[in-house]
Amino acid sequence: MAGKKLDSVKYTNMFKAYGAFWRRGFTEWAGTASRSEYWWNVLMNGLIGLAALFVYFFFAVLGFAVDSVEVMIFGGIVVCVPLVIYYLAALVPWISLIVRRLHDAGLSSWFMVLYGVGMFCGFLSSLVVAAASPFSRGALGFAGFLDIISFCISIAFFVFALLPTKVDGNPYHQFNRQ
Length: 178
Known about the structure:
By secondary structure, this protein is an all-alpha fold. It contains 6 helices and no strands. Helix 2 runs antiparallel to helix 3 and helix 5 runs antiparallel to helix 6. The longest helix has 31 residues. The protein starts with 13 loop residues before the first helix and ends in a 16-residue tail after the last helix.
């Protein structure tokens, strides 16, 4: 391990890591991403979502204060449309970051299939709940089963993101190809 240089960068600043998220997100898939790069971006994307929630909360309170459903709907549009556009724009860099984080931990990017299954189960659960009648126990039970699968996969990816950088025997680091 002595003398080997890692090709993943450890970020000590959230804004530098977030800049790298956008800069490297569309071009680098085969490299690695350190834990700090991953977690700073989780924090930044969470803060963006939290800010959007506060803006929506403001419009909801304002709508209740003036007794206007239109204000609440306007608030939902003002918040949701830019947020959906942002998260769609961040989808490719986010997948790239997760693939690089898996590589940094010495895992294959094929684990992204598992991540996709978890996201699909969560999405399908929402559709089942929305389409089911309130008295349909079978559909709601199936939705609960899908939520459990999605939750377990989320926990697995949380653990994957916590794994330290694997230096020896990691096929994804450049220094191992010399």
